[in-house]
Amino acid sequence: MPTSAVPRTAALIVAAGRGHRVGAALPKQYLGLSGIPVLRHAVERFASHPGIGLVQVVIAEADLPLYDASLAGLDLPPPVTGGATRQRSVLNGLEALAGRDIDLVAIHDAARPLVDADTITRTLEAAARDGTDGALAAVPLADTLKRADGEAMVSATVSRQFLWRAQTPQVFRFERILAAHRAIAQLGHDDATALTDDSAVAEMAGYRVALVESPEGNFKITTNADLARAERELALAMETRTGTGFDVHSFGPGNAVTLCGVSVPHAQGLAGHSDADVALHALTDALLGTIGAGDIGMHFPPSDPQWSGASSDRFLRHAADLVTQRGGRIINLDVTIVCERPKVGPHRERMRTRVAEILGIAVDRVAVKATTTEKLGFTGRGEGIAAQAIATVVVPAQE
User: Could you read off the pLDDT of 333-355 as tens digits, one per residue?
Assistant: First the structure.
């Protein structure tokens, strides 16, 4: 879907709840799901969607250290502090977005980490149509419904016709849903059970909200059984890919070399069409290899003058963007720099930090190592530097 179809769209991820029914020491949104916090799964689904321009998260104030650790490396605005109820938390988030010239806002539960890009797209499109004020993802009921009496005995069969189970995202025209939440708050409808989703707020305001059929996989994690189900679903939906990269550059005139985006003083520079960052070039090829997207020369031909002297962080970010567009996520990057000089050790942590910054990932997902060839070969003779890299990503499983 062209991004122009949903201009200036923000995602508001609600993550201020406590999730007591999971029975864990941490709130459920910070629990690990295939090694990644539940919250990060949800945030990345929206951050990587081409129709979303901004992702804002609402959290409990006490959870700030958990939030920082879970979303390290992502380019997000500071989190908003939530309230005592979901309704109040959403209002706080909406108020934080006010003044940003937003047309649509997609409100999503952090505890729904497996929402797919197609559901997001169709909900955005439905909310943007003329004649609607919003849209929500939902599942039409398939089971027969029974009403019980006070003794848990069947008292009636309820028609399931026209009944749906509401999910998120729920997308609304921003100014209207903000006004509706403000109005409800002024009326005092702020207890935990009165209004359990944003569609209910929109209904009270008389808005027209479209239903968009959503898959069962977009379920909410409420219990340990749900968390286990999410693990199984994610394992089936994703596959792990590995790619390798190798690059070499000879020494040339200069007084520094660029390695992993860090300028390292040296008696010589590295010769190359771009900034000759041998480590980032190897990492770029490794990432491209994970999705079968060719090599760095195909995307940035050395014969093209526009790349003369270019900073190699552009190449690495481009490769990462291609992985993201495939619905993928970087799990680990490991690069080994091979040279006698300069010494890499004193600059290693800066290199790791810089690669993590370029890609918006946590530093602990980046390894930078160095070795020599014991004076053998061109690197042993001090003629240049080599680098080899391995990238591991997960992408949606292919048939």
Answer: 999 999 999 999 999 999 999 99
Q: Give the domain 238-396 fold.
A: 60s Ribosomal Protein L30; Chain: A; (3.30.1330)
Ranges of each domain in the chain:
3-222, 238-396
Distance CA 169, CA 10 (A): 12
With respect to CATH, is domain 3-222 assigned 1.10.20.10? no
Of 127, 113, 118, 131, give the one whose Cα is nearest residue 10.
127
In tens, the pLDDT along 297-306 reads 999 988 888 8
Residues 275-328: pLDDT tens digits? Answer: 999 999 999 999 999 999 999 999 998 888 888 889 999 999 999 999 988 888
pTM exceeds 0.85: no
